[in-house]
Amino acid sequence: MQRHHHASAAPLSVSRSSVPLSGTIAVPGDKSISHRALMLASLAEGRTTITGLLEGEDVLRTAQAMRALGAKITHEGEKWIVEGRGVGALSEPEDVLDMGNSGTAARLLSGILSSHGITSIMTGDASLRSRPMRRVTVPLAENGSCFVTRKGERLPMAIVGSRQATPISYRLPVASAQVKSAILLAGLNAQGETRVEEPVATRDHTENMLRHFGVPVQIDKIPEGGRLISLTGPAALKAHDVVVPGDPSSSAFPIVAALLVPNSEIVIVGVGLNVLRTGLFATLREMGAVLLVENERIEGGEPVGDLRVKASALHGVDVPPERAPSMIDEYPVLAVACAFANGSSRLRGLEELRVKESDRLSATVALLVANGVSVRVEDDDMIIDGRDSNKPIGGGTVETKMDHRLAMSAIVLGLAADLPVHVDDTAFIDTSFPGFVSLMNGLGAGL
Ligand SMILES: O=C(O)C1=C[C@@H](OP(=O)(O)O)[C@@H](O)[C@H](O)C1
Ligand SMILES: C=C(OP(=O)(O)O)C(=O)O
User: Fold this and answer.
1) 107, 171, 284, 304: least CB-packed within 10 angstroms?
2) Which residues does the record give as 3-phosphoshikimate binding sites (predicted)?
């Protein structure tokens, strides 16, 4: 059932789309919400049915890990059924937990494991093994748990969970929903009040879903614009069915493609519109994009809508650093949009991009430079020169570095470029967006 590490690369040569993109599509389920649904349902008492779950490799890793910890997880067609174990009742895994390419799975699960009195070993693929875990091991160790990592706080790591976890009180030094979530999840099996202060608000799917499973979560605004989140443990979660909305981060790729391929018009139905995720949409509108929300509604406790996108003449934009958490995974594809815009763009405060599946700051620069776009980095800002009619875009090879978002961004670039764009490996797209290439072909992309 577990699909395995990508043994061979899947290169792709992408030529400019010869027809406008058109049609109505749905993108796969939200990755952040899918991980949380599986984890919380496994910690709940009773049976939860999840519909719309992202069946991407990252989320399948979470399902496999929760099974190894004793949850019963099956699926019948598109319905995923989880029989939870209850907080405090996870069993010790018999083998190493392999979180594949997924930072979210590794960080959130570390939180859960730290407050369960079991010992486990966690690893991941070469990309995940290069990503920093210190951001979770330092705060989590406050509860009495112990982490033994490879040099530089990298995976593989052993986690000796605390038998009597104390609650953690922590102010986030970086804007990270993964770190916030790890601490809150640890708090479910700690005695007393867990508190996390975030100077800038980050995606709040953990808080929303904890409430959905019956855990009271207190959220207070703090003066600088951030939030203080608290909950009291030990907490009991009650099974509750979950409907996962379409992933706004995945929708970014067909959206930018439709904006850039002349005369396109597409509709993407059922996209999640949580305001802590929609920074890209605001930015694209500032650039002149026709991006309309239709049928806005609430589904499964999250705002959802259909997006209508029309090919648009874009102009350069200056994106403030405080917008970064609401569009953190969208910068590579935004950079592609900026390369085709009229005038230059400045994307500010991108330091967190250095610790994603790849160093996305340098990799995005390399993607553009290889294809004839002028771009530079100043401190943590990326400055992209817009379209220069004397200089063709494309003709280069993109190194995707085990990073799904770079692979999809390179494909979008190729669909609008003057010369073909060669992508070294598209296999990692399956981590977050299985079926991406055929979905784009359904719109006319001709990949
Ligand atoms: O909590 C989450 O589900 C995520 C948080 C973000 O990471 P950080 O917490 O590292 O910013 C984001 O990049 C990732 O794709 C998903
Ligand atoms: C950063 C990402 O995911 P993760 O941290 O879960 O690997 C992403 O999907 O762009």
Assistant:
1) 171
2) 31-32, 36, 176, 178, 329, 356
